[in-house]
Amino acid sequence: MKLRLILFLFTFIILGSLPARAIPFVLDFGGLKNTEQVLSFYDGGTGSLGSGPGPNYGITFTPSFGAVSAVPPYGPSLVGQLNGPSATMDVSGGFNLLSFYYEAADNSGSVALWSGLDGTGVMLADISLPTSATWNAAGTAFAGTALSAVFIGTSGTKFDQITDAGLVIPEPSSLLLLATGLISLIPECRRRLARRVAHT
């Protein structure tokens, strides 16, 4: 009976200390129309031409980010496109990893990840986008939680498969709780092992 209780407590400590997971998302721009602004399509709303409702990821885009017909690296025949010098993606649930494919035939660009909505707060990472006439993969993990990404470049820069793994780094107190729980189990495990050895 005690062994079951110990195993239950051990499992509870482990599960309680695991990092929280946000719902992962993959933005492939399927479901939108050619030249449609994305807007709140990924917030359970619609794009500028009425497409939707889209999936509710809590993600919105400024009007300068749209969907266009193109040949993507994989997936549907629509991709995201920068329709001005910059566009902002707000993610209300936050993220700490972002990856995507991009095509920047004219000029280089970047994607700045910010701790606040609308490109405010502290810049947590800056992903460089060297000029490329073919699709390239880019992305980064970083410390902290970002609430927005600002896409910077020339009009016509394309993006596809914008993805967030959604992992949240456990805070130090959770790790301390896990270590304390594991250490507290050592004496009981030794006693049980000693009893078993004595009975054999």
UniProtKB/TrEMBL annotation:
InterPro entries linked: Ice-binding_C
Record-given protein name: Putative secreted protein with PEP-CTERM sorting signal
